[in-house]
């Protein structure tokens, strides 16, 4: 941890933003210097709750007064692009976003590109890929101690393939150290396939990865709800918890689960949001890269869009990267425009944190 105290601004401080604010208030190397939120009542409550006096209705007003070191962007997805670009252009050193990063590929591209051009560290959000045990399982797969990877599968890729499915795609890409380069998919039910959003869409299919692996995709959970990756001897199973590792077979031919003995991680107060934030701060300090990046979220969106495209075209193989960057897949309205606009506002009492 560096001696520098990072000056943090939270932009969009609803239910999820408050989880970030709790974390950034707690860490000794961070200080929340400003909050921007469109809801005036909630904003005032949050100022008192997190002891922040610099409160703004939007990112423009905030940046006129303060250019923070870190911008934590937790607005509804619709507003993320403009906020991320404004922060990058103002000279913020590190920006984090949430899932899904955008609906349209062009918007995700614009965010990734402006951050790359300006040398801004661009992190993703509260995703299980950033869990320290997921990272360590990936290292064990990559350093060969579990053998050569032979196969992979995704389980439960349905319900909201962009809103929640980015969890699966981010772990799959990490474990296999490869990109999805071709998708053949089948989608149900028909009304979800016809809709603009990912709500209720169940995708079954096959991903072809850049390392030659064929990955089966199950739209509904099997015995697993996550990602399996296997070698001749071992299976690594991420099922929304620290990954299980199986090694070898018992006399009946069943895989044997072994003790994972993951290394202790110094930060554990905020579940896997911790790994996301700590790896992000380390990257801003020049050490490594965020365990979940904005580019990871862009890739996940692209896979979701391509899967739906294949399914709507009667399971035509679709190659990635997609040429048409105007393609879009909207998340459910709560994620897109937030709780206030969809009849599920967070009450002022709830925002006090008690
Ligand atoms: N990774 C996860 O586990 C996870 C969990 C929940 C939500 N999310 C994502 O986090 C984002 C926010 O979700 P939430 O549950 O906090 O929603 P929310 O509706 O509770 O909060 C959104 C907040 O943003 C504010 N806001 C809206 N537009 C704004 C703008 N242009 N500038 C500044 N503030 C603005 C609203 O006033 C509100 O306080 C969504 O993209 C959602 O998909 C991720």
Automatic annotation (TrEMBL):
The lineage of its organism: Eukaryota, Metazoa, Porifera, Demospongiae, Heteroscleromorpha. GO terms for molecular function: nucleotide binding. InterPro entries: Gfo/Idh/MocA-like_OxRdtase_N, Gfo/Idh/MocA_Oxidoreductases, NAD(P)-bd_dom_sf. It comes from Geodia barretti (Barrett's horny sponge). SUPFAM superfamilies: NAD(P)-binding Rossmann-fold domains. Residues 7-122 form the Gfo/Idh/MocA-like oxidoreductase N-terminal domain. Gene3D superfamilies: Dihydrodipicolinate Reductase, domain 2 (3.30.360.10), NAD(P)-binding Rossmann-like Domain (3.40.50.720). Coiled coil: none annotated. It comes from the Eukaryota. This is UDP-N-acetylglucosamine 3-dehydrogenase.
